[in-house]
Amino acid sequence: MIFFHMDLYPGAESMLFIIDLTVATQVHNVARHPFSNHFLRELVGTKSSFSTDGKEWQAQRSWFTPAFSVSHLTALVSGMVEETLIFRGKLIEYAVFGEVFSM
After folding, report:
1. CA–CA distance, 60 with 45 (Å, rounded to integer)
2. Residue 6 bridge partners (DSSP)
3. Burial class (CB in 10 A: 0-12, 13-18, 19+), 49
4. What torsion do the CA atoms of 6, 39, 67, 79 make, to the nearest 10 degrees?
5. How far apart are CA 47 and CA 60, in angstroms?
6. Most distant CA pair in the chain, distance
7. Angle CA(85)–CA(66)–CA(72) in degrees, nearest 5?
8. What's the pLDDT at 85?
9. Which contacts of 63-68 are long-range, i.e. CB under 8 A and separated by 24 or more positions?
10. Per-domain residue ranges of the chain
11. Coil, strand, or helix at residue 76?
12. What pLDDT is attached to residue 88?
């Protein structure tokens, strides 16, 4: 099991980081930190999967589940590789000519 607790007192609230799938799948109904909800609602509104909870969140999450399926993501790999090679080529060009560029 890999998880750790970060105590940021007095600067911020404590945080628990879970980086083990076995542990993460055992955690249920954990509310978002109130600051996160406030911050995200300002960015994405009040009816986003980033700012809703419970059944409303579950319904919204189900809309995106097919997009993250292994078969769908695997189908995208060749395009990602192609775009990465183009990006790599541009970086090499900039390096060869010593050009400064913005990312």
Report:
1. 14
2. 15
3. middle
4. -90
5. 9
6. 55
7. 30
8. 98
9. none
10. 69-103
11. helix
12. 97
Give the Cα separation of 31 and 7 in Å (integer): 19
Specify the DSSP class assigned to residue 88.
H
**Model pLDDT, residue 1:** 65
pTM of the model: 0.48
| Sequence letter at residue 57 | W
Cα-based distances in Å from 12 to 7, 16, 33, 40, 80: 8, 13, 12, 18, 38
Q: SS3 of 9, please?
A: coil
Query: pLDDT 10s per residue in the chain (103 long)?
Result: 688 899 988 888 888 888 988 888 888 777 777 777 778 777 888 888 877 888 988 899 899 899 999 999 999 999 999 999 999 999 999 999 999 998 8
At residue 90, the pLDDT reads: 96
**What pLDDT, on the 0 to 100 scale, is given for residue 98?**
95
DSSP-assigned letters across all residues of 16-62: EEE--HHHHTT--SPPPPHHHHHHHHHHH-SSSTTT--HHHHHHHHH
